[in-house]
Amino acid sequence: MAEEFNAEGMLDMYLFENEQLLEQLQEMVLDQKDSECFDEDSINEIFRTMHTIKGSSGIMMFDNITAISHKLEDVFFYLRESHPDNVPHLELVEHVLTVEDFISGEMEKIRNGESPDGEPAEIIAELDKFLEKIKSGAVKEGEEAPAPVPQNVHVEPKHFYIAPVASSASRFYKIYITFYPDTEMANVHAYKTVYALKEIAEDLLYSPEDIISDPESAQVIIKDGFRILLQSQSNEEEIRKLIGVGYDIEAVDVFECRAEEFLQGFDFGEHELKIDLESSVEDIEAKVKAALDESKEEEKAPPEKPKMAPGDFVIKSKEPGKKKQLAKDKPKGEKASFISVNVSKMDQLMDLIGELVISESVVLQNPDLKVPGLNLANFNKAAAQMAKISTDLQNVIMSMRMVPLTNIFQKMNRIVFDVSRKLGKDIDFEMIGEHTEVDKNIIEHISDPLMHLVRNAVDHGIETKEEREESGKPDKGKVTLSARTEAGKVWISVADNGKGLDREKILAKARKQDLLAEGKPESAYSDKEVFQFITLPGFSTNEQVTEYSGRGVGMDVVVQNIQAIGGVLDIESETGFGTTMSLKIPLTLAIIDGIVMETGNSSFVMETGVIKEFFSVKEEMMIHEPNGEEYVMIRGECYPVIRLGKWYGMEDYRTSVEEGMMLILEVENRTICLFVDKLIGKQEIVVKPIPSYIKKVKGLSGCTQLGDGSIALILDPGGLVE
Amino acid sequence: MEETNELRKQADDSRNGSDERDAQKGKYMTFKSGNEYFGLKIQYVNEIIGFQAITAIPETEDYIKGLINLRGKIIPVIDVRLRFRQEPFEYNDRTCIIVINVKSTIVGLIVEKIAEVVEIKEENILPPPSIGRADKVQNKYVYGIGKVGDSVKLLLDPDKLLNDADMSVIEQANEMVIDEE
Predict the structure, then answer these.
(1) Partners of residue A722 in chain B, C-beta under 8 Å
(2) How far apart are CA A554 and CA B2, in angstroms?
(3) Is A179 found in the same domain as A139?
(4) B89 has pLDDT over 80
(5) How many domains are there within chain B?
(6) What is the mean pLDDT of chain A?
(7) Looking at the domain assignment, is residue A317 inside a domain?
(8) Element containing residue A676 per DSSP (H, E)
(9) A563 and B177 in contact by Cβ < 8 A?
(10) What is the three-class DSSP state of A165?
């Protein structure tokens, strides 16, 4: 029964949980940023989130996080209870996001082993002002308006964790347990009861609170009884059964109360219930009433003081200062849902599974099995089963490493929101393909570059309202963030419908900086080449340096970061119509559906997506140009042909088109034909990078291990087209 | 193969624990390539594996033979003889691949024959002669000549072996990438 107090684990869990909560919060807030106001569910959800964060931060003694989440919770409590209809929604959204930023920032400090020392006073003051504003604007709702209580609650955060899920079917109980006066260690018995009740509790409060660490509490329990307030789905009988009547318990009284009563006691009033440990239950109730009465006088109290929020039940214990978390059970079913695993262990597991697959094929295709006359029916059955399991195993380990881009996209959503608000631009933000899954390592690397691109799009790309009106565009700017996988790569594009890049301006600047090659006329530069200038260090055409961009750092950093992971930045732009920046990133460890083929003595793999069809061609369909180029005529269309064997200068490849196989590929809006010796089959493949020791080979994007352990090279159709 | 196993064991043993660092000092893995015996500092050697199927990569230098699958890890292999501009040789049962790790780059070296692990004392290592040899190309990989009894081992600088001339190739490759953009 001794509590395992593993501070390290708790901290990790705290950070992990809160991070999740904040992400959900942000997603929800941004989701509704354009609507009139938050809907009922969101308000409740934000309220609950803040409450949970406040509770856990209180336990961890991060006072500033506690204070600020508390304040936001207050705001949402007011919204929830009073339904004011004149809330400036965007302002509210900003407040929520500010608080979220603050908490995220503090958590980052905690994660880095620093102490969370951010000063929330300013934000709290802002929130207070905001709360005052919506209150004064709202219909006077007298009693319902939350009243600050001038108690310095946060010096000793004693919040109990409250399970966030409360279904309407729950019932509310007040339980009084009286122990025999001669019971030894009544506190331990009391804890046993609490422990039993946690199983069914949705909400559980008890007094005295400090029953584990404070042996004194035993006397208090014997003298005054042990009091529990319980919210649960269970009925009285079940509760009694759980508590059980042992030799030590003299009497158990379970009173069911109505939800209103329950709330009245602990929710409605928003009062700190100061309960002297010596007082009886009747006294507590009396105090609740007294506190309620007092609240009206306290209406004008200075708002800086954090006040009680619903759900908090603060018991002033005899020994303040001892932090204890007794009822910090998470909602059932979520426990141990996540563990964090060292990535290197995952890599190891992955390698092992690779080996397993290989040895599996060694066993299953063992030459010994080829002996004629063997009865292999049972063997084959067992082998099939084993193959199935190992495939599943592979899929699981792969999926463990893959993370959807959702979070990073949400972050971008946030940036667009912030920057556009600050710049006074009205911008639609669209996300496409945010569920595209990318290897975790990649995600970490693209976050910053993407952020730059999105900021640039909002800041440079989209014009101001006035400019847009002048050029006769619909007045809303639009930024589209999209992700897709193509040709074994992830393409993440940031497109805006703004003014586009100005070729002349860039060229002029390049001339000024002596970047143009001598003897090359400006007209000889293709648009793509010109646009690449902006990725050079110190190159910014934005005349004005703004808070967000224009310092000339950015694009070069973007390119550097992208190149570091073997990616490429592609810029397309049409003056007056917008710019599209595309990141083309290899999926280092992604699984792609591939077609395995053979040319010469080598195996190659091509992503299934780009292959339109396979075609057996006849010699007369071929068109030969005198310079050696070849075309093939299929159904009246003429496509260029690449012979893979010739392309790579291999030996022993099939030269007659009738013996081999023609693959019709559609890459980057072009159609080409690829001629290979033969097709082997379709397979899910794990893309692995070609070791960096080997120089980049055009048309190859990686390699993979086939089922038999041999290595196949992955063809990059984009490279073949160039 | 017994010999190889023995050596493999030695290599493994000597990589265990830092207290055995000293034991590694001055020890060299020697192998035969052409008529010469070469030595590599044992700390660079990860393991020795038997010859296995190599997947060729097009458009690379001839001495880069391709990729092998080392327990799920894909590593490049180079032919030491071709690297030294010597005549190519037929791979057979005695052909071994020495897996070395130089500054986190893992590369397999195909060698004709593994010899032994020898200890060469500092005073028995001479600087390479600067003139007098026809194939000067070789000299830049050799940082010293170790005397073991009557025989002589050419001591290789693995970093140069892998990267020296290749560096420019990689730079070229990088430039190529930039051009493509």
Answers:
(1) 180
(2) 59
(3) no
(4) yes
(5) 1
(6) 72
(7) no
(8) strand A670-676
(9) yes
(10) coil
Tell me whether B55 touches chain A (CB under 8 Å).
yes
Q: Which residues contact A428 (CB under 8 A, 6 or more apart)?
A: A476, A477, A478, A479
The range of the structural domain enclosing residue A255 comes to 155-300
**Residue A538 pLDDT more than 70?**
no
Nearest Cβ partner for B64 among A601, A603, A694: A694
Are A392 and A429 in the same domain?
A: no
Residue B72 has pLDDT above 50, yes or no: yes
Q: Is residue A312 part of a domain?
A: no
User: Which among A586, A587, A590 is positioned nearest to A567, based on CA atoms?
Assistant: A586
Q: What value does the mean pLDDT take over residues A585-589?
A: 63
Q: Do A649 and B180 touch (CB under 8 A)?
A: no
Q: Which CATH number covers residue A161?
A: 3.30.70.1110
Half-sphere exposure of A250 (CA within 13 A, CB side): 14
Output phi, psi for A281, to 5 deg. Answer: -60, -40
What is the C-alpha to C-alpha distance for residues A624 and A631, in angstroms, rounded to an integer? 6
Cα B34 to Cα A69, A452, B85, B134, B157: the distances in Å are 74, 55, 10, 15, 18
Which of B:159-178 have CB within 8 Å of A?
162, 166, 169-170, 172-173, 176-177
Asked whether residue A462 carries a pLDDT value surpassing 50, the answer given is yes
Residue A534: band (very low, low, confident or very high) from pLDDT cuts 50, 70, 90:
confident
At A639, which CATH number? 2.40.50.180
A397 in Cβ contact with A350 (< 8 Å): yes
pLDDT band with cut points at 50, 70 and 90 for residue A588: low
**What's the gap in Å between the CA of A710 and the closest CA on chain B?**
7
Whether residues A376 and A422 share a domain: the answer is: no
Residue among A53, A51, A57, A52 at smallest CA distance from A73: A51
Q: How many helices (H) and strands (E) does chain B have?
A: 4, 11
What is the Cα–Cα distance from A446 to A453, expressed in whole angstroms? 11
Residues A565 and A621 in one domain: no
Instruction: Please give the residue range of the domain that contains residue B119.
Output: 2-180
| Contact assessment for residue A179 and residue A248, using Cβ atoms and an 8 Å cutoff | yes
Q: Higher model confidence: residue A285 or residue A233? A: A233
A231 forms beta bridges with: A172, A203
Q: Chain A within 8 Å of B179 (Cβ-Cβ)? A: no
The per-residue pLDDT for range B21-50, each reduced to its tens digit, is 566 778 899 998 878 888 988 889 999 988
Interval A343-378: pLDDT, tens: 788 878 877 776 777 677 678 777 788 788 888 889
Q: How many domains does chain A have?
A: 5
What type of residue sits at position A701? Answer: S
Same domain, A653 and A699: yes
**In angstroms, rounded to a whole number, what is the distance separating the alpha carbons of residues A559 and A538?**
13
Check whether residue A34 and residue A138 sit in a common domain.
yes
Q: What is the pTM of this model?
A: 0.47
Domain containing residue B131: CATH number: 2.40.50.180
Percent of chain A at pLDDT above 90? Answer: 2
* Residue A326 within a domain: no
pLDDT digits (tens, 9 = 90+) for A495-522: 888 777 777 777 777 777 777 766 677 7
Contact A711 B72 (CB under 8 A): no
- What contacts A574, CB < 8 A, 6 or more positions away? A500
**Same structural domain, A635 and A555:** no
